[in-house]
Amino acid sequence: MIIRKPTLIAAAFCGIFASSSVLAKITADEAARLGNDLTPIGAEKAANKDGSIPAWTGGITTPPASYKPGMHHPDPYADDKILFTIDKSNVAEYKDYLSPGQIELFNTYPDTFKMNIYPTRRSASYPQFVYDATKKYATTAELVEGGNGIKNTAVGVPFPIPKDGLEAIWNHLLRFRGLSIERSGGQAAPTASGSYNYVGFDEQLLVEYSSPEATPEKLQESNILFKFKQKVTEPARLAGTALLVHETMDQILTPRQAWTYNSGQRRVRRAPNVAYDAPGTAADSLRTTDDFDMFNGSPNRYNWTLKGKQELYIPYNSYKLHSDKLSYDDILQAGHINPEHVRYEKHRVWVVEANLKEGTRHIYKKRVFYIDEDSWQVHVTDIYDNRDQMYRVAMAHGLNYYEVPTHWSTLEVYHDLNSRRYLAIGLDNQEKMYDFSKSFNDNEFTSSALRREGR
């Protein structure tokens, strides 16, 4: 098979490349491309040259006929067959479509790690009001000084035609995931032998930024992007531990606000350290706080560079992995999750490199994010330590929650190459499904509510 080496398109692919710290806003002519040769949120609408990535035709616009609210989502592509499989024997043939971290997984687990490649389905879609807001504010959205916040935008993708890496990562941070979401699930960190303990969570998310009624003025006044609450439900020794986060729009004006409830002490405490490289909740130190959702929080400790675009094999349309027909034992095994349940497809991704600023600290010196052009979801992250060695590799297994619709991960997997362990977070096969129809109010996201949740 002849492999066409992908082109790493310059960051100027959509227009102006910004080399200064002051970025030019999207022009009216550039914004006019949204919904024409670009999708409503800025992806290339056309197929790639060889047709292995098809044209975007709107994504999934209606749920399958068999779907009913509350179900684990039936696979609309269940009849697709595997095109080919990449394993250690042929990985060199496909290296141009793999990240360095993905290649390292083949080297680390040569006998067991593989990638089943399926036809590419550009299924990502969002509500029309998200598309409308993206176009409406495309020419006004801008970063606050230093890039540690955002202004003059609401609801949609703030920078559908990004001029630098900071704008691209803010698109990931603010991508549409629904309005009020309640979800149950958990995580597991298998040992080298494959044994694991399940940690259960109940989570609630209220996204003020994405509300159809949101305006730049209202968001500036409240300075809140979203509110997030998490409670540990099992095992018994951790049950009742809870976390509350208020994520701010301008983090210079007001940094992230966080509180924790410790079930042993029975008290709520402010938690300013719930950020950056603080260890994630009950994660055996296999992820940092800002790893959650592939990246979250303030970007101010890194210099961000938009490297361009490339074609990459990424986890996508992961309905099989999401199925309630699977148990956690079916998915979790030593070294990595069971590759028989994982679907990979070729997609165009934005490549964003984050390098630690001089004078700041983080256990990660460099991170390279591969962001799906159709959804602004980070699907793969390569993470380097302070010796410039590959340290961790993270992959988000996404699908279209078509009742919303939104493209979001069903499972995130963080591979630690040094310990040869991984953390799988978002396990929900044996739990009730995400509920995007919940209606929350602000008083459910206060420190008093956190205390009640913990008890």
Commentary on this structure:
The protein has 455 residues and is of the alpha+beta class. Helix content is 12%, strand content 28%. The chain contains eight helices and 17 strands. The strands form three sheets. The protein has a 13-stranded antiparallel sheet with strand order 10-9-8-7-6-5-17-16-15-14-13-12-11, sandwiched between helices. Strands 1-2 form a two-stranded antiparallel sheet. A hairpin with a 4-residue loop joins strand 9 and strand 10. The longest helix has 10 residues. The chain is globular. The N terminus is likely disordered.
What's the overall average pLDDT, rounded? Answer: 93
Which structural class matches the secondary elements? alpha+beta
Radius of gyration: 21 Å
Unreliable stretches covering 5 or more consecutive residues: 1-7, 10-21
Portion in helices: 10-25%
Order of helices and strands: HEHEHEEHEEHEEEEEHHEEEEEEH
Beta strands, count:
17
The largest sheet is: 13 strands, antiparallel
Q: Which strand order do you get reading across the main beta sheet?
A: 10-9-8-7-6-5-17-16-15-14-13-12-11
Strand content: 25-35%
Oligomer: single chain
How far do the termini sit from each other? 60 Å
Supply the number of helical segments: 8
Q: What does the overall shape look like? A: globular
